[in-house]
Amino acid sequence: MIVKVLGPGCRNCHTLVTRTREALASLGEDAEIIEVSDIGEIAGYGLMKTPGLVVDDELVLGGKVPTVRQLTELLRGR
After folding, report:
1. How many CB atoms lie within 10 A of CB 56?
2. Pick from 61, 63, 40: which is nearest to 50 by CA?
3. Which pLDDT value is given to residue 78?
4. What integer pLDDT is reported at residue 74 of this predicted model?
5. Which residues contact 74 (CB under 8 A, 6 or more apart)?
6. Coil, helix or strand for 1?
7. Pairing relationship of beta strands 2-6 and 52-55 according to DSSP bridges
């Protein structure tokens, strides 16, 4: 699984990275997490408000920072 966190590197972006790591660990998933700050690449996903979360090249979340529990549910079964 490849997970990308899209955003300019703001506090919310860093929080999303941390919570995503926690959610993946709770699921026992081994995933690569990539932080993407390039505006062109972010726009290529159609994201209008950061931060965003991309799983295996599919935008699954944008504009908010969910809880670890919410992220766990989102990532389960992917």
Report:
1. 11
2. 63
3. 79
4. 95
5. 23, 53, 60, 61, 66
6. coil
7. antiparallel
pLDDT score recorded for residue 30: 86
| Residues labelled catalytic | 10, 13
Q: In the predicted model, what is the mean pLDDT of the chain?
A: 96
Q: Which amino acid is at 3?
A: V
Show the tokens assigned to 73.
């549910």
DSSP string, 4-73: EEESSS-HHHHHHHHHHHHHHHHHT---EEEEE--HHHHHHTT--SS-EEEETTEEEEES----HHHHHH
Measured distance CA(21)–CA(24) in Å, rounded: 5
33 neighbors 18 (Cβ within 8 angstroms): no
CA distance 28 to 45: 27
Return the closest-CA partner of residue 78 out of 47, 52, 57, 51. 57
